[in-house]
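Let us practice reading a record.
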Amino acid sequence: MNTSHKVVVVTGASQGIGAEVVKAFRKLDYRIVATARSIKPTDDANILTIAGDIGDPATARRVISEGVARFGRIDTLVNNAGIYIGKPFTEHTADDYAAVMNVNVAGFYYITQLAIAEMEKHSSGHVVSVTSSAADVAMSGVYTVLAALTKGGLNAATKSLAIEYGSKGIRVNAVAPGIIKTPMHAPDTYEALGAFHPLGRMGEMSDIANAILFLDAAPFITGEILHVDGGQSAGR
């Protein structure tokens, strides 16, 4: 067990923003515990991959316990896992609601609780969650009720946890993206989606990873919701 390097847990790490965050932290020589439903094993001895449903408390327990057993500590948790189901509100099914709540809320709750308990042992740590500007700004024609319900809840929880654990040396922040170029968006939609941002374009996955790295390296910032959304949250 090597405890001389910092250790970050990244959820939703198999693709998109999560995979970009893993790459960004590895460039800084962090040890990484990467989890997602479909994540594959890696030859990199400094990355531990754990497949599972992040909304299941058993998966959260495995991620934290196996991460500590392998690397000796947890310094940072990146709550990146999330899903979006875009439908008119009255067309959402009970299954839609359950799926979004499972990943976006339960997936945050269980692993954050365990990670903070581990961080308390060392009186230091950082939790950063990927939320959404949709929690702050509704847009006509874009169906975001479940995103606003769940990601808005994470923004509120971020501030509550920052106050509760600040005196214990644990910081809690969030990054709220606009619409980002990820595998969920087809290239032929980029121009139309980019028009939702005052800057006139979509964001890059690296924009979100860099924001997370910034918050991780900013020891006097806690309780912050950092909007990385091309000005979307400022208004139109």
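A brief commentary: The longest helix spans residues 94-120.
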